[in-house]
Amino acid sequence: MGLPEERGRTGSREQEEAGAQSRVQSWSPPPEVTRSAHVPSLQRYRELHRRSVEEPREFWGDIAKEFYWKTSCPGPFLQYNFDVTKGKIFIEWMKGATTNICYNVLDRIVHEKKLGDKIAFYWEGNEPEETTQITYRELLMQVCRFSNVLQKQGIRKGDRVAIYMPMIPELVVAMLACARLGALHSIVFAGFSAESLCERILDSSCSLLITTDAFYRGEKLVNLKELADEALEKCREKGFPVRCCIVVKHLGRAEMGTSDSPSQSPPIKRPCPDVQGKLKEKPKRIWPQISWNQEIDLWWHELMQKAEDECEPEWCDAEDPLFILYTSGSTGKPKASICGVVHTVGGYMLYVATTFKYVFDFHPEDVFWCTADIGWITGHSYVTYGPLANGATSVLFEGIPTYPDVSRLWSIVDKYKVTKFYTAPTAIRLLMKFGDEPVTRHSRASLQVLGTVGEPINPEAWLWYHRVVGAQRCSIVDTFWQTETGGHMLTPLPGATPMKPGSATFPFFGVSPAILNESGEELEGEAEGYLVFKQPWPGIMRTVYGNHERFEATYFKKFPGYYVTGDGCRRDQDGYYWITGRIDDMLNVSGHLLSTAEVESALVEHEAIAEAAVVGHPHPVKGECLYCFVTLCDGYIFSPTLIEELKKQIREKIGPIATPDYIQNAPGLPKTRSGKIMRRVLRKIAQNDHDLGDTSTVADPTVISQLFNHRCLTIQ
């Protein structure tokens, strides 16, 4: 993946973007977005990074002093082993020190920082008129109440609690209440199936489930309670009855009436016990019939009415587990691939707080908006824990980018004067399809820093993000990290590191990357190979829940002494890192290793292409060839002429070896509900293999049949 080349058409969009690229390379922030005192200069960044790697105990020890510890670390600040040949893999930061992350993100902010009246979240519902806000003091009170509710239901330190909810304030309350008690939350994205929820409950033996009656996602009604009931029935059939299910009345809030008491539930969209101000009524919607099991089902609001306002936190060891978050492998067989990533209290707290502060150049007056769902690691780290640990004000958004129209995101930016905006390349490419006008009709004058997360961003989308959304004045932080890393690993720092479209730039503090060849040898200078990390950082996962052997085999066995990311990476002559995609997304064509991300980037640089996905296909001569799926921008027609233009562009951008054998028109691509393309499914379609494995996480299953019906005729 490299910088897009100028195509030399006077006055064209391509030339404009090539000019934008040139301006990006010499970009310097205007006065209103220059770094604050805590964002270092490039030279100072290099000095701090060197210290963080060479003296991690001293570096992170200084940062730890900003937080509250009930007892200090009695022994070594850091102990670890990354080498499977020398014994068990382990990582311990500040073992023996005790703290509570909920106390640090709420009590410390309210009482020590005196920010109780500061808004913690602006909540924006699925409908634009559904809005409310909650202060740090109100949030602390609600968390204490729900902590008491959980205690009365028998939840204690070390217990596991499953949470299956949309993006509503109660979701934040529930996860922080678990953290306050030292119980592990296992949040399951509300777009997952009942089977997926059941698997996760069983894997970690969750004793309690928290869910919602129903919610709207755009115009689609999701009867979440029905799915939860189905999951709990599956659990019973498999010999594990969950003893309690707490249900938030979200869609049916209007039935609850109003009151002046702030004691029943957190601030929400409708007039209810503790909403401040009058809210507009939601447009008429269908309210589903909610099934009820008297033996285990309990209403959230009824339990909260009886709960006390105060709850002492459970003091936890820094190495006690904080949460489990499941990731799925690429096999399509959830039982084989489900992986419960475990993060711990102390190190995770330090790392997400510090990455948030520096990567987004946090200022106290900022309004931060991460569009990710809390069901994913991005939502854990940069919707909840990272912003709250810094006393930030954030936007919590229930809806989708295209409802009720495609300018929804920018309307929200203006509404709340968002200063720092963090979203996925998938969302950017989706909105690019509709042109500039839905963006430019809104001011966006408050924006200062734009971030991307989830996958490498192609330069074309980066330039559109910079040119149109950021009006060529916002710094862009293209962040590389994983569920397993807890927080940012490779990233620019706004105002400090010069930007290159599509590059994750430099390692964050404490991160020591290396690029290895197939033999495990470190490559110096310009290089391409396996991305690994040489030593631990505070936010690294500690194990796979209930399966430490898998943890060792997956992340440490291939190259002993290193944490193996599973990603390919290129380092350029300036020391910038470019993620080339998952190693299993690398294609071997006639003995040449090709990155699918690089080919996809070349495809979407064509003005007709909105999105592309590339997979390998067996070839009798080459061994493997390229099979490309392309989604067109509005107004373009798929034709033999377009196919030849795309092949020519790839030959020019990458080389003849990368010329695709097959290019298929794809009006839609199979994606998870978080927006990630399911390349495993695309490989099956390319080979006309209808044995797809588990497809329960596909957002729109009809896309799959459409792609099978229009696949290219291939030779094996």
From TrEMBL:
It is an enzyme of class 6 (ligase). It catalyses: propanoate + ATP + CoA = propanoyl-CoA + AMP + diphosphate; acetate + ATP + CoA = acetyl-CoA + AMP + diphosphate. Keywords: ATP-binding, Ligase, Lipid metabolism, Nucleotide-binding. Transmembrane segments: none annotated. InterPro entries: ACAS_N (IPR032387), AMP-bd_C (IPR025110), AMP-bd_C_sf (IPR045851), AMP-binding_CS (IPR020845), AMP-dep_synth/lig_dom (IPR000873), ANL_N_sf (IPR042099). GO terms for cellular component: cytoplasm. Residues 598-676 form the AMP-binding enzyme C-terminal domain. Gene3D superfamilies: 3.30.300.30, N-terminal domain of ligase-like. Residues 45-105 form the Acetyl-coenzyme A synthetase N-terminal domain. Belongs to the ATP-dependent AMP-binding enzyme family. This is Propionate--CoA ligase. It comes from the Eukaryota. Residues 114-543 form the AMP-dependent synthetase/ligase domain. One of its GO terms (biological process) is acetyl-CoA biosynthetic process. Residues 1-16 have a biased composition (Basic and acidic residues). Residues 1-38 are annotated as: Disordered. It comes from Crocuta crocuta. One of its GO terms (molecular function) is acetate-CoA ligase activity. Its EC number is 6.2.1.1, 6.2.1.17. Pfam families: ACAS_N (PF16177), AMP-binding (PF00501), AMP-binding_C (PF13193).
